[in-house]
Amino acid sequence: TGSSRPQRMLKAVQKNATKGDPQSVISAIDHYCRHKEWAMNVGDDKGLILDSVLTEVNPSTALELGTYCGYSTVRIARLLSPGSKLFTVEFNPAFAEVARQIIAYAGLQDKVTLVEGSSGDLIPKMKEQFGIKYFDFVFLDHWKDRYVPDTKLLEDCGLLKKGSVLLADNVICPGAPEYLKYVRNSPRYESRYYKSNLEYTKVEDGLEKSVFLG
Ligand SMILES: CCc1ncnc2c1ncn2[C@@H]1O[C@H](/C=C/CNC(=O)c2cc(-c3ccc(F)cc3)cc(O)c2O)[C@@H](O)[C@H]1O
Ligand SMILES: [Mg+2]
Questions:
Q1: Can you list the residues of the chain whose pLDDT is less than 70?
Q2: Predicted pLDDT at 207
Q3: In angstroms, what is the span from residue 125 Cα to ligand 1's centroid?
Q4: Protein residue with least CA distance to atom 32, ligand 1
Q5: Per the count of CB atoms within 10 A, which of 2, 69, 153, 161 is most buried?
Q6: 61 contacts 160 by C-beta, under 8 angstroms
Q7: Percent of the chain with pLDDT over 70
Q8: 185 among known catalytic residues
Q9: In angstroms, rounded to a whole number, what is the distance separating the alpha carbons of residues 140 and 150?
Q10: CA distance 181 to 19
Q11: Does the Cβ of 46 fall within 6 Å of ligand 1?
Q12: Which of 44, 64, 141, 205 is flagged as catalytic?
């Protein structure tokens, strides 16, 4: 059988990027997905917003839900301060395998812990298994109907502290209407929408940034 789209993305990175250079890995994926095969990476336009929010928060411990091929994992990890860590959750073993190779190609494996499994099962184990107290930053980019249950789970597991920032992809396209209602109506969050476009297209999409008020 032939290769998968994630495997072809990995090949494009190995062919066009420089080992140990995260920016070249990001550019190689963006070029491939813009000119060869679209893929559901956060992309370069929304990626710049992700970069600026991440830099502003400068998290010690960050969480990503939905690794896919590791594009946003590389975007986040490349901006972490020394000693800071990113945990990323992915339940599809084939995607996790590609992501591990892309993260390693970027030279960021020491900053990233890829945990294989379902977010609903893993979030309650984060404290005991990884000695995590809180997440300063959470990037939500997995199944859109999981954003609300997993946000509630993070709250209930005491993994958010006053000032923790949630950044959610795709709140317009494909859309996460229940999530927008949840964070915008809750007195426990201060939310703001960053208008952009769906990766590699002219379709509107955006990111919702929500600060947990404790
Ligand atoms: C069970 C909890 C749970 N636990 C652990 N891992 C989980 C998980 N639920 C999901 N995953 C993994 O996360 C990734 C899924 C991501 C889902 N993302 C979109 O669907 C999406 C779609 C478009 C778009 C598509 C088509 C269009 F026409 C327009 C837009 C654009 C985007 O940016 C998008 O993010 C995969 O790796 C899953 O294996
Ligand atoms: Mg997305």
A1: none
A2: 99
A3: 22
A4: 40
A5: 69
A6: no
A7: 100
A8: no
A9: 9
A10: 42
A11: no
A12: 141
Residue 143, ligand 1, Cβ within 6 A: yes
Query: Looking at residue 2, what is its pLDDT?
Result: 83
Question: In angstroms, what is the span from residue 39 Cα to ligand 2's centroid?
Answer: 9
Q: Is 141 a catalytic residue?
A: yes
Phi-psi region of 131 (alpha: psi -120 to 50; beta: other; left: phi over 0): left
Q: What is the 3-state secondary structure (H, E, C) of the chain?
A: CCCCHHHHHHHHHHHHCCCCCHHHHHHHHHHHHHHCCCCCCCHHHHHHHHHHHHHHHCCCEEEEECCCCCHHHHHHHCCCCCCCEEEEEECCHHHHHHHHHHHHHCCCCCCEEEEECCHHHHHHHHHHHHCCCCEEEEEECCCHHHHHHHHHHHHHCCCEEEEEEEEECCHHHHHCHHHHHHHHHCCCEEEEEEEEECCCCCCEEEEEEEEECC
Give the distance (Å) from ligand 2 centre to CA of residue 40.
6
Active site residue 144: yes
Active-site annotation holds for 16? no
ipTM of the complex: 0.99
